[in-house]
Amino acid sequence: MAYPSGSTPLNALRTAFGDRLQENVVLANYTTAHVGGPADAMLILHTAAELENAARRLWELDVPFNILGVGSNVLVSDAGMRGVVLINHARNVKIDVHSPEPSVWAESGANLGGVARQVALRNLSGLEWAATVPGSIGGAVYGNAGAHGGDMQGSLLLAEILHRTEGKVSWPVEKFEYAYRTSRLKAQPGQAVILTARMKLAFARPEEDIQAKMDEFASQRRRTQPPGASMGSMFKNPPGDYAGRLIETAGLKGTRIGGAEISSIHANFFVNNEHATATDIARLIDLVQKKVFEKFGVKLELEIEKLGEW
C-alpha cells in the first residue's frame, strides 16, 4: 500500500519491527557534522542479514528509508527526515590470506579506515589510500570514495547488492559505472542497498613498508585537514583544479555563518564550531557556490549529500 506523501505509517512500522523501532530520534547524534533534526523512525541494524530484512520489509510497506553508516558526507536538514533511517552497524570483516590473490570481505557498516588498518596488520597492501577515510564500506562503494591517489573503483572486486526489483545480486565493480565520486547507485538513489563488499589486496613486497605509508597519509591529513565536526570534503574538485583553492582564492577561507565556519586550514572543509545548524552550513554552501561562480565561472558541485526536508 502507498501512504500519503510526507506521512510515515508509524502503526504499520510498530507492527513490523516492534520494540526495535525508535521514534523521533535526533540525527545530530548520528552524523559527523553533529547537525540534523529528528527522524520519524529509526532502526539500528547489526548484521547484513538484519539490514537486508529491514530493507525488504520497508519496500513491502512502501515506506521510504535512508541508510547512515558513519554519518559522514551527509548534511541532514534541521527539519529532519521523514520515513525511516537505518543505522548500519553491520561490521563483520574477513581477510582471506590463503588464496594466491588475497582479498578482504566486509559488511557495509564496517569503517573503511578501520578495515584498511586491519589489512595492513596482515602485511597486505592495496588499501593504504583508505586509512584516513572516515566513512563506511557501504558509503565508500556507493560514492566511490577516494584519497591519496586511490579510490573504491580501483579496489573493489564485487559487492553484494539488495536491489528493489532484482532481489539480492552480486555486482562486479564494472556494473557500478564509477566516475569521480559517483556511481550508478548514487545516480539512482533508493533503488538498492549495499550489503557487503570484497576488495582486492596484494602481498606486500619485501621493500614495502605499508605501515610507514599509512602513517605518512595520517600525518598529511593532520597537517592539511581540520579537526572537529565536519562532513569531510564539501565539494568535488572541478576538472583540472581544486575546490579548496577556488574557495580560498575567492577570499572565503575562515568565513562564518552562525556556528559554521569554512576551515582556515582547508577551505573545502566546513566545520561545526559553535552549535551550528544544518541551515548555517547550507547558507555557507550557497555563499561559496555563488562567489566562486561570480569570480571564476565555475559551478562547484557538492560531494556531500543533502538529506531530509529542505
Describe this structure in words.
With 310 residues, the protein is α+β, with helices and mostly antiparallel strands. The protein has 3 domains: 10-88, 2-Layer Sandwich (Uridine Diphospho-n-acetylenolpyruvylglucosamine Reductase, domain 2); 93-210, 2-Layer Sandwich (Uridine Diphospho-n-acetylenolpyruvylglucosamine Reductase, domain 3), CATH 3.30.465; 226-307, Uridine Diphospho-n-acetylenolpyruvylglucosamine Reductase, domain 1 (Alpha-Beta Complex). It is 28% helix and 26% strand. It is built from 9 helices and 19 strands. The strands form 6 sheets. It has a 5-stranded antiparallel beta sheet. β16 (256-257) and β17 form a beta hairpin. The longest helix has 19 residues, at 278-296. The radius of gyration is 20 Å and the shape is globular. Mean pLDDT is 94; it is low at 1-5.
How many E strands? 19
Tally of individual helices:
9
Give the DSSP E fraction (strand runs of 2 or more residues): 25-35%
The appropriate CATH architecture of the largest domain is 2-Layer Sandwich
Quote the CATH topology of the largest domain: Uridine Diphospho-n-acetylenolpyruvylglucosamine Reductase, domain 3
Note the quaternary state here: single chain
**Class by SSE composition:** alpha+beta
- Indicate the radius of gyration in whole angstroms: 20 Å
Poorly predicted parts: 1-5
Chain-averaged pLDDT: 94
Strand order of the largest sheet: 6-7-13-11-12
List SSEs in N-to-C order: HEEHEEEEEHEHEEHEEHEEHEHEEEHE
